[in-house]
Amino acid sequence: xxxxxxxxxxxxxxxxxxxxxxxxxxxxxxxxxxxxxxxxxxxxxxxxxxxxxxxxxxxxxxxxxxxxxxxxxxxxxxxxxxxxxxxxxxxxxxxxxxxxxxxxxxxxxxxxxxxxxxxxxxxxxxxxxxxxxxxxxxxxxxxxxxxxxxxxxxxxxxxxxxxxxxxxxx
Length: 170
Hints:
Structural class: alpha+beta
Order of helices and strands: HEEEHHEEE
Oligomer: single chain
Number of strands: 6
Strand content: 25-35%
Shape: elongated
Radius of gyration: 17 Å
CATH architecture: 2-Layer Sandwich
């Protein structure tokens, strides 16, 4: 059976962090230690972490953010003695925009980047180094978007999405 920490290791997202992070700021590091970088289409996230907090509580200049929430582990039975695990991870994606710019217009490309990074079983196996251990990995279920004036700073608009991703171990 696969070890959970291997599955939940966020270092696969290292390449999506923006350049110019402060010295010592790493994937999964303390939120308070992070410094803003300059997002690009291929490196859109200032913070990638398993330290899941409400995206609205992250200072606007430290966004966009990607949090991985270990939500559900389901033991699936396929007959007598045939049990495998189905993991559901929720990706929390958050971004702020200035008034007059719909935050959704910034959020949607982030969701596309996440989808492109994890859209195939092969990508998951390669990214996690699990090869044949994964039966399938896919976005599954209802993705919820929350957009509006709920930023911690009244000068910004907040957009957040909560996206379920399912991994089934063979």
